[in-house]
């Protein structure tokens, strides 16, 4: 049975290999433009900075150099039920310098399309065992991010050689570039 987390809660991840599933539904845009939400992963060390440009995993860089983090590809519409995008994690391969993996979702071209997370509903992040398709934990974002165009859904971090997940749910009124500036 999956553990449902609230914002700020933390939970141990006892599986060395798992998949992060991200899902959302979009309201019909008043601008007429389709929504394109993108999951991005920032793989960081002790200094809270990405280890290298290749440790930023997203739709144009689908795999980390150690092959521990793999994005399964960009979903351009978010149509359908279930996960819209997935990231596979194998902690047995992770670079020993890694202490944090940050999971961010942004709205592609949000400014020009006049879109924000206030128009997105049923957003969630879940961590599941891909071999059994069993959810380990899930966090549903319930906040109304009416001006934010990027949201940090959660982070996986290492403390005392154990990996944990924290439900973050923090919005930012910028795009992917703002996160790159923050973590670079």
UniProtKB/TrEMBL annotation:
Protein name in the entry: Tellurium resistance protein TerD
Gene3D superfamilies: sav2460 like domains
Matches recorded under Pfam families: TerD (PF02342)
GO biological process, one term: response to tellurium ion
The keyword Acyltransferase is annotated on this UniProt entry: no
Domain (TerD): residue spans on this chain: 1-183
Matching InterPro entries: Stress/Tellurium_Resist, TerD
Domain of life: Bacteria
Assigned keywords, A-Z: Tellurium resistance
